[in-house]
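Record type: monomer structure entry
Structure origin: computed from sequence
Chain ID: A
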Amino acid sequence: MYNNLTAKDFARVTVKSFEENLGIFSNKVNVEDWVPKNKSDIEKALFLFYVVQLDYATKSQKLYEGATKLLEDIPNFFNPNVILNYTDEELLNICVKYLKPRYPNEACNRYKINSKKLLGEYNGNPLEILSKSKTAKEALKRILEFRGYGNKTGNLFLRTLISVFNPIFEDIQDVLPPVDIHDVRIAYLLGFTKSDEMTKKNIGTVKKIWNEACKKASVNWITFDRALWLLGSQGQPKTKEEVLKNVGLI
């Protein structure tokens, strides 16, 4: 029945189901949903800055659960001045206890280097990355200059900043979405690609497919990307039918 389903139609239906909280989308656990309540905008941005940069080699939900617990126990932890005042051993112990990164020494090294850069170039405020940028692409370029912020985590951090703080960038639809194994697998299951391998070429192809689909469907790629992550990580579909069922097409 859906042999001729296009990426445009899939994007449109997925966003609609997400916005209406249907099925798999009734339980939202995206990065944006972990942003601490009753905090200032700077504190929220700092939380995202430090946690998203570790969202690359660990279970995302476990990472954000740990970060939330860390914030409860050490309310001022996610602050560049505070992080730089810890000894290497103290910082390592905290990261291992709460955040459980796969590479704890690299995580701590990253925290210290990025804290110095954030203080030196943005007055310790990640929101200045946005205010100093004329375009979304420029903001992304600035983010990618931080240690450990690659194509996936960099685009993810930009997505969260835009979702939470809603800056106005005319070129936002031209920024390619972050793509992980879930996005690639869903594109493959739907027949939009010939492989689900996580190669640079395949990842680039999937980014372009989703970007063009959102443009043609006139939907926000940020909303679509949030829905896609939930569809992959929570639904974990193994067949095309399971993908379609989870977005309400069958």
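Annotation 1: The mean pLDDT is 92.
Annotation 2: Residues 80 and 119 are 7 Å apart (CA to CA).
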